[in-house]
């Protein structure tokens, strides 16, 4: 039996979405972030030593990391779906986006999140100091990388309806978390219309909607 150990506001949504697209039966076990620290509860460490989400169990197998889980599901249950054929241009694009999501796009997004969050959580008498300081730090460390990244993504979307071609793939699912995060937190509605259209296509899929209904929306970057 497939079991998804699902943390609210996390990359775990990717796993739920692919499972729904594959129409596989699965169980979902919910975990809540700490309201102040936003960290996962210690009970997740009973499932996997790292205590992170998502975690997928399939019988005796315990697997962490969303990209690795997506690949496992496709290898084991995909039957050729949601992944372009090897040796095709689409497969090259697929591999790029599958790894780009966490390798290059998420790091500056997380820096931006932290630098925005610290002033809001600072004591009242320090907010006046922290807000301009962390704003400048964010501009210097993260903003240029994010602007370049989303300009590149917007240009690439001129080639096809989805990131790796004309069909939804697991690369789109893997990229959905940072794309939604960046689109909302950076207010890219005017500068990235193709990205906005892609996100609408994602959100319009029945499997995506079922995943949201079961796992809850991602509001961490909103």
Structural notes for this entry:
By secondary structure, the chain is of the alpha+beta class. It folds into 2 domains: 76 residues, Glutaredoxin (3-Layer(aba) Sandwich); 117 residues, Up-down Bundle (Glutathione S-transferase Yfyf (Class Pi), Chain A, domain 2), CATH 1.20.1050.10. It has 7 helices and 4 strands. A 4-stranded mixed sheet has the order 2-1-3-4, covered by helices on one side. A hairpin with a 2-residue loop joins β3 and β4. α1 packs parallel to α2, α1 packs across α7 and α5 crosses α6. The longest helix is centred in the middle third of the chain and has 33 residues. The two termini are 34 Å apart. The mean pLDDT is 90.
Task: Report Rg.
Answer: 18 Å
Strand content: 5-15%
Structural class: alpha+beta
Provide the domain count. Answer: 2
Summary, kept brief:
With 222 residues, this protein is α+β, with helices and mostly antiparallel strands.
Protein topology:
Blueprint: E1 2-7, H1 12-22, E2 26-31, E3 55-58, E4 61-64, H2 66-77, H3 89-121, H4 124-156, H5 170-185, H6 193-204, H7 206-215
Parallel strand pairs: 1-2
Antiparallel strand pairs: 1-3, 3-4
Helix pairs in contact: 1-2, 1-5, 1-7, 3-4, 3-5, 5-6
Features:
222 residues, alpha+beta, Glutaredoxin, 7 helices
């Amino acid at each position: 039996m497939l079991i998804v150990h699902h943390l609210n506001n996390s990359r775990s949504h990717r796993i739920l979405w692919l499972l729904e697209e594959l129409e596989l039966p699965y169980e979902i076990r919910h975990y809540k972030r700490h309201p102040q620290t936003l960290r996962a509860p210690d009970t997740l460490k009973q499932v996997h030593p790292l205590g992170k989400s998502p975690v997928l169990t399939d019988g005796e197998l315990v697997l962490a990391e969303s990209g690795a889980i997506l690949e496992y599901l496709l290898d084991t249950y995909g039957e050729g779906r949601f992944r372009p054929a090897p040796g095709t241009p689409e497969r090259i694009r697929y591999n790029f986006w599958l790894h780009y999501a966490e390798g290059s796009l998420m790091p500056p997004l997380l820096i931006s999140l932290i630098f925005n969050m610290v002033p809001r959580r600072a004591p009242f008498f320090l907010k006046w100091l922290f807000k301009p300081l962390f704003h400048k730090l964010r501009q210097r460390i993260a903003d240029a990388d994010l602007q370049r990244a989303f300009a590149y993504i917007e240009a690439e979307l001129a080639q096809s309806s989805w990131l790796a071609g004309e069909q939804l793939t697991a690369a789109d699912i893997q990229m959905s978390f940072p794309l939604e995060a960046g689109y909302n937190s950076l207010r890219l509605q005017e500068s990235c219309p193709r990205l906005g259209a892609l996100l609408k296509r994602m959100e319009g899929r029945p499997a995506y909607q079922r995943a949201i209904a079961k796992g809850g929306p991602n509001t961490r970057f909103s």
